[in-house]
Specification:
6-stranded mixed sheet, 20% helix, alpha+beta, Hypothetical Protein Mth938, Chain: A, 3-stranded antiparallel sheet, 9 strands, single chain, globular
Length: 130
């Protein structure tokens, strides 16, 4: 599966080159919509509002929790708290969850990714980069 084939999956974790205009750029590609970045690659994320962030919509992250130390959740233009059931489920698997604005999540993700840390990102797409 690959992004160009319309599958919504790029098989490598990559730095985020840009965000805004309703999507993200990475690995010389553009993606419209929200995004999950995991050690197994970049995935389209069918979530458009913080209220849609649930254990179910984070299933891919939970499945790979053993390979993740920190999950940054970009909750859009503003910080929105992550439900305690999500925090608890991930904490039980050793994953720290940080909810921040999408811009902050992308910037922090890029730093930790460059340091080769066990990082994951679940970020809501935003129209304006901040």
């Amino acid at each position: 599966m690959d992004w160009e084939a319309g599958q919504g999956h790029y098989p490598y974790q990559a730095a985020i080159d840009a965000y805004g205009d309703g999507g993200f750029r990475f690995a010389e590609m553009s993606h419209r919509g929200s995004l999950i970045a995991l050690p197994t690659g970049m995935y389209a994320w069918d979530v458009s509002a913080a209220a849609e962030i649930t254990l179910s919509t984070l299933a891919r992250v939970i499945d790979q929790a053993r390979d993740i130390d920190v999950l940054l959740v970009g909750t859009g233009p503003d910080i929105v708290p992550i439900p305690s059931e999500i925090r608890t489920a991930l904490r039980e698997q050793g994953v720290i969850v940080e909810a921040v604005s999408t811009g902050s999540a992308v910037r922090t993700y890029n730093v930790l990714f460059a340091e080769k840390r066990a990082i994951a990102l679940a970020a809501l797409a935003v129209e304006k980069a901040r």
